[in-house]
Amino acid sequence: MTLKISRILHAGYVFECEGARIAFDPVVENPFSRNCHAFPEVRFDHAQFRAVHFDAVFISHFHDDHCSFDSLDLLDRATPLYIYCVFDELFDMVRELGFSKVHQLRLDAPVQVGPMTVIAREAMDADVDSMFHIQAGGLNVLNVVDSWIDPDMLPALARFAPWDMVLWPFQTMREIEVLSPSRASPAPPQLPEEWIGQLAALKPRYVVPSSCQFVQEPWSWYNHAFFPITYRQFEQEVGAALPDAQVVRMNPSVSFVLDRDGLHAAPPLSWVVPVGEQDVDYRYEGHATPPPTADIARHFPALTSDEHARVIDYCTSGLLDKYRGMELPEESFFEKPRVWRLSVFDHAGEGTHFHYRIEGDTIDLMAGVPDALSWTTEVPVARLYAALELGEALTSMYMRMNDAVFDQQTEADLLGAELVDDPLIRCLFNDVFGAYQAAQLRRIKERGQVVDTAG
After folding, report:
1. Which of 274, 306, 337 is the last residue in one of the domains?
2. Same domain as 270, residue 331
3. Phi and psi based region of residue 313 (left: phi greater than 0; alpha: psi -120 to 50; beta: remaining)
C-alpha cells in the first residue's frame, strides 16, 4: 500500500490512499491570515479546488492560518469536518457557514477514513492546538503542525519509531521580539536543542521542514526579521544529527508517494499553482534597524471618517471599558501606578497620542502631556481599525512597544515585564475568540453564499 502526500501551503497537506482523499488545514488563499504572503509565491485555481472531493477535512486548531472560512467556503458543505478545538463557538460558526457534518476531535481517538486512520495527538498547548498521527498500510506519519512536542508526550510517540515521515515546523518565529526590537535579545544561532533530541527519539526515515512559509507586504521590515532559521540551516543541522534520516523539502503543490521502499516523486496538485522561483530561502537580518511606526503607517490607505471615528472612540472610551472589565495577570507590570502612552499614526504619518494612568485594573484617560512615561505603544491607525473590525492578528499589526528610555526604576521594572502585558494587546486579544472567522462569516453571509443546511 502506498500513501500520496501533497503540500498545499503553510501546514496544509493532502493525503491520498486507495481512492480516499483527506486534507489537513487546507488554506487556499494568498495572502492568507489577511497579510501573510506565501513564500515561495503561489496562486490557487479555486474552480479546480471546488471540484475536488475530500472524504474528510481535518483542522488542527482555530488559528486563522489553519481554519479560514474563506477557504472552507469553497468546499462541498457535505464534506465531513473534524476539528480540534475546545471552544464550542467555533463549531457553531462552522455550522452557520453551512456544514452539516462537523465533528469535534478528541485526543488519541482514531478517525477512520477509508484505509487511513487519523489520530489527534496532544501538542504543547492542548487548550489551543493538536498534532496529527496518520496511519495507512503500516506507515506512520506525524504532522506536528504548528506546535512542537510536549516532553511528556514524546515517550508515547517514540513507541512508533521509526516513523516513516515527520512533518516538522522548522521555523521559530519572533512575533513577540519584533514588537519591541530595540529591547529584543538576539536569536539563538542554532536550532533549539530539544528539536534534535525529539527527532532522534522519533527516528524518522524522512523529515519535511513544514509550516511558517510566508512573508509580509513587500515593503515590510518583518520580511527579514521573523524567521531566523532557514531551510539550509535546518537541513544541515538535522542531517548532521540524524544521518539515517533524509530531509525533504516540499514546496506548495509538490507531491510524493511514500511506501515501505522509499519516497517517490508524484504529479503535483493541479490547483496549487507555483509562481516564479520555488527553492527560495528566508534571509534573516536580526540586526536591521526597523523604520519608525510613522513611516510604516504611510503604507496604509486613509480610513473613512466613520472608520477613523471608530478608532478614536475606542481609544477614549471602549479601551477603558474593556480594560476595567479584565482581570490583571499575576505579577503584572501594571500592578504599580504607571503612565501609558498610546500613539496611533494615520496614512500621512501624523500621530495622535493618548495618555492613561493605570494602576491594577483601573485606568483613566489623562488630560495634557505627563512629565514622565512608564510604557509606550505605537500602532498604525489602519491596523488598529482592522483589529477592531476585520479580525487583524497581532502578527501583522505593526505594533511597537517601549522604543524609549525611561527613568531608572521603570527600566529596572521592565526587565521582568512581559510584552503581552501591553494594555492594547490585552484589550484587543484577551478573552476574544474567533474574531477573524466571525468577520469572514459576516462577509460571506453578506455575499449571500452561505448554504442553508437546516432540516
Report:
1. 274
2. no
3. alpha
Alpha helices, DSSP H, located in 132-176: 154-158
Q: What is the structure's pLDDT at 450?
A: 61
Q: Which three cell numbers stand for residue 108?
A: 488519541
Query: 45, 69 in Cβ contact below 8 A?
Result: no
Tell whether pTM > 0.85.
yes
**Cis bond upstream, residue 291 (ω within 30):** no
Distance separating alpha carbons of residues 342 and 344, to the nearest angstrom: 7
Total count of domains within the chain: 2
| Alpha-carbon span 55 to 66, nearest angstrom | 19
**What one-character DSSP code corresponds to residue 393?**
-
CA angle 18/24/25 to nearest 5° reads 160
- Kindly report, residue by residue over 359-375, the tens digit of the pLDDT: 999 999 999 999 999 99
User: Is 451 inside a domain boundary?
Assistant: no
Does 284 map to a domain? no
In angstroms, the CA 149 to CA 157 distance is 9
Range of the domain at 100: 3-274
Specify the CATH number for the domain of residue 154.
3.60.15.10
Which of 117, 121, 122, 146 minimizes the C-alpha distance to 22? Answer: 117
Q: Are 422 and 316 within one domain?
A: yes
Q: 298 and 268 in one domain?
A: no
Residue 252 DSSP SS3: coil
List 255's β-bridge partners, or say none: 6, 266
Task: Name residues whose C-beta falls within 8 Å of residue 132's C-beta, 6 or more positions apart in sequence.
Answer: 24, 58, 60, 118, 119, 120, 121, 142, 143, 145
Task: Mark which of 241, 274, 307 sits at the end of a domain.
Answer: 274
Residues 217 and 330 in one domain: no
Please give the Cα distance from 441 to 93 (Å, whole number): 8
* pLDDT for residue 451: 53
Mean pLDDT, the chain, integer: 94
The answer to whether residues 81 and 24 touch, using CB atoms and an 8 Å cutoff, is no
Say how far apart CA 367 and CA 189 lie, in whole Å.
Answer: 47
Cα 267 from Cα 275, distance rounded (Å): 17
For 310, the grid coordinates are 471608530
Residues in the chain, pLDDT under 70: 449-455
Q: What is the pLDDT of residue 454?
A: 38
**CA 200-204-210 angle, 5° bins:** 100
